[in-house]
Write a structure and sequence with these properties.
Blueprint lengths: L2 H6 L37 E7 L6 H9 L14 E8 L5 H11 L5 E6 L8 H16 L8 E4 L4 E3 L3 H10 L4 E8 L1 H5 L3 H24 L18 E4 H6 L10 H11 L4 E11 L11 H13 L5 E2 L2 H22 L6 H11 L3 H9 L4 H15 L1 H5 L3 E2 H35 L1
Parallel strand pairs: 1-2, 1-4, 2-3, 6-8
Antiparallel strand pairs: 4-7, 5-8, 6-7, 9-10
Helix pairs in contact: 7-10, 7-11, 7-16, 9-14, 11-12
């Protein structure tokens, strides 16, 4: 079985009618009126979108960071290669005025500023980001090619100087979409309540360890180490072709970026969690939505006051899930290629996953992507509740310790395998 297929599946696998929630290209009919009348430059490779609501304090630094982009060698990036569309929606501060002023004083940056008041039914981040990303898609598509890029950031975030160049590098290496590493502002993080700050730092460490563990049990050749775990709107890029294939961004309330990531997984997009692509964002505890980092920080503050432990999935549970997902991927591949599959193997995987055997067999028989299959399996796990009953949540400190111990063992094993390869090659030559 080809390694890349085992990891990703085929991008051209057709999704079954039952599972296909968003038909390919059907979202195009939902387009609103264009935000920007001026067509993009023919050299434009990247359209950066920035949703803004009351970000007067941080907006200038956001725009300055986009203005001062360089290539991977540190040379100024040709500003004809990218454009920025900023939508100031329902602002009650000077955000729009700041953006207009910046565009005037930095006329060599292709910056389109749109000041718009949306109706209350549409004035939420999921809808605003959808409007912007759809606009970027429509602007880039007529330019031709499939590797032009829609890149998202936020009005309270500051991208690093190589943000665009590093994104294009990852796309050039074969990624369909790229999630950047999102770092918090140091001063704001230092000002957090001690328990909230500790929880935040522990979660980052925990999720990094989980991401590494994943590479040992269900590896992805596009998303190899070093990698991180984030795929959020402050730094999220996707090719126009894959944006189309995924059905565009859906206007969910929150978190719209996570929902979009799931839609990419659903169509087997090659997603890269790149450590080269980085952005700094606010560590404020008062957010614009009910879900997000700000709200999570606020919850941790309250947990600290109430002396509540921070509970997460155990290392054993995480490892089991990754291993079973890998085994299921093999079964999916066999069904996809009409290879004989032992019914006992299906039953063993189903029982281990805590889902009905008949359900799993029916899903495997459908002509759907592995991403879609896994989504349905996870949904069924929640419905049946067997998986959750088998595992207990643990304190995050315990989980981190167990993950470190397990990963140290796996690293040593991997090193031994790598060291033995030259001798194996030598034996083959001598024979």
């Amino acid at each position: 079985m080809p390694r890349h297929i085992l990891a990703h599946g085929k991008n051209d696998v057709q999704i079954s009618d039952r599972a296909q929630t968003i038909p390919y290209l059907s979202w195009l009919s939902d387009r609103v009126s264009p935000l920007v009348a001026t067509p993009p430059l023919s050299q434009c490779e990247v359209c950066v979108i920035v949703p803004v609501r009351n970000e007067a304090e941080t907006l200038e630094s956001t725009l300055l960071a986009l203005y001062h982009q360089v290539d991977l060698k540190g040379h100024p990036l040709d500003r004809k290669r990218y454009e920025v569309i900023l939508l100031a929606n329902n602002c009650s501060d000077d955000s729009a005025a700041i953006a207009y002023g910046f565009a005037k004083s930095h006329s060599d940056l292709v910056l389109h500023v749109v000041d718009k008041t949306l109706p209350s039914t549409e004035a939420y981040i999921g809808r605003v980001r959808q409007i912007l990303m759809d606009e970027a898609y429509y602007r880039l598509s007529p330019l031709g090619g499939t590797r032009r890029v829609i890149a998202s950031t936020d009005g309270d975030s500051r991208v690093t100087p190589t943000w665009i160049a590093a994104t294009l590098y990852e796309i050039g290496c074969g990624a369909d979409a790229v999630g950047g590493r999102i770092l918090t502002n140091y001063q704001e993080r230092a000002a957090l309540a001690p328990y909230a700050r500790a929880c935040h730092l522990r979660e980052v460490g925990y999720r990094y360890l989980v991401a590494e563990l994943e590479t040992y049990f269900d590896s992805d050749p596009v998303d190899t180490l070093p990698r991180h775990y984030q795929h959020y709107g402050a730094s999220l890029a996707v090719t126009t072709d894959m944006y189309d294939r995924a059905g565009g961004m859906q206007p969910v309330r929150t978190p719209e970026d996570v929902a979009f990531y799931k839609s990419l997984v659903r169509v087997n997009a090659r997603f890269r969690h790149s450590p080269l692509v980085r952005v700094y964002t606010s560590a404020r505890t008062t957010g614009r939505t009910s879900i997000g980092l700000a709200n999570q920080l606020s919850k941790w503050e309250k947990m600290g006051l109430q002396h509540q432990p921070f509970l997460v999935e155990s290392a054993a549970e995480i490892e089991s899930r990754f291993w079973l997902r890998h085994r299921l991927r093999i079964l999916w591949w066999c069904f996809l290629n009409d290879e004989r599959v032992d019914e006992k193997a299906i039953a063993l995987i189903a029982n281990a996953l805590g889902v009905n055997v008949q359900f799993l067999r029916q899903e495997l028989a459908l002509p759907q992507t592995f991403g879609m299959l896994w989504e349905w399996v996870e949904q069924r796990q929640q419905e049946e509740g067997i998986w959750r009953q088998r595992w207990s949540l643990v304190k995050i400190e315990e989980a981190i310790f167990a993950l470190r111990v397990r990963l140290e063992k796996l690293r040593r094993q991997q090193q031994q395998v790598e060291l033995s390869e030259p001798s194996r090659q030598a034996k083959r030559v001598s024979c």
